[in-house]
Specification:
With about 250 residues, the protein is of the alpha/beta class. The chain is built from 8 helices and 7 strands, in the order E-H-E-H-E-H-E-H-E-H-E-H-H-E-H. It has a 7-stranded mixed sheet with strand order 3-2-1-4-6-5-7, sandwiched between helices. The protein starts with 8 loop residues before the first strand and ends in a 16-residue tail after the last helix.
């Protein structure tokens, strides 16, 4: 039995070279699980870290019964880490938060009340504590993405998200997919809800994003999304005789 199946909510935390944040992740995530309004667990996805992140993850999972992990043989990127986490999760709802803790897990409580009415509930970062360059490039990238996808989402880069797991498992995944989660959910004729959440400075570690993967790469990925959208297959089965009658 997959251990995540006994929880209502499984929070995916992609990790790549975040050894300085592991102890704080244990503290913040552990505190949240104790107070969460639903039975929740943590699933770390080590994306082939080259530092001591994996050793730290193994250690805190050993100490915390609701912490789990998977690890890649080599670095595959954020989209692959999210896909692997979603593939492994068997809870009804799946969450996502970044390891940098610029958003805090306790703000999942702002999103969870809407989970039954929306396939994706996502945060909008308020009072962003990023540099001017990062905020400006994010503004441009979000504007161009909305123009190309018409998803109506203000801040797709906010890492705080709650997704209905069955909808998440139907998402067509590709490199850069994490920027298009709302648009990909909408392709299933599902609804997306945006909720303001808090944002904080990164206290430890180094950001993995730079000009290329914050602005240029998302620009190119928009064209990949447009190509895929025209060919996306979405169907609903009305009846079958595959299940044995009780």
């Amino acid at each position: 039995m997959n251990k995540t199946s006994v929880y209502e909510f499984c929070i995916i935390v992609p990790i790549y070279n975040e050894e300085e944040n592991i102890s704080r992740l244990e503290e913040e995530l552990g505190r949240y699980l104790e107070a969460a309004s639903v039975k929740a667990c943590i699933l770390f996805v080590d994306d082939g870290s080259k530092d001591n992140s994996l050793q730290g993850i193994i250690e805190i999972c050993r100490k915390n019964p609701d912490f789990y992990y998977i690890t890649f043989t080599h670095n595959n990127g954020l989209s692959a880490a999210l896909k692997a986490g979603i593939d492994m999760a068997e809870s009804p709802y799946t969450g996502y938060i970044d390891a940098d803790l610029q958003t805090l897990p306790e703000d999942f409580e702002r999103l969870l009340p809407f989970r039954r009415d929306y396939a994706l509930v996502m945060g909008i970062r308020t009072g962003r504590k990023d540099s001017f360059g990062k905020r400006f490039s994010s503004l441009i990238a979000n504007y161009f993405r909305r123009m190309m996808t018409h998803d109506g989402v203000e801040d797709t880069g906010c890492p705080l998200k709650v997704i209905r797991t069955d909808a998440a498992k139907r998402i067509p995944f590709f490199t850069g997919m994490h920027r298009f989660l709302p648009a990909l959910i909408q392709l299933q004729n599902e609804k997306v809800k945006q909720v303001p959440v808090r944002h904080f400075e990164r206290l430890k570690g180094i950001s993995k994003f730079h000009l290329w993967n914050r602005l240029v790469s998302p620009f190119l990925d928009c064209f990949a999304y447009r190509w895929m959208r025209k060919r996306y297959i979405n169907y609903t089965i009305s009846a079958d005789n595959l299940k044995e009658q009780e």
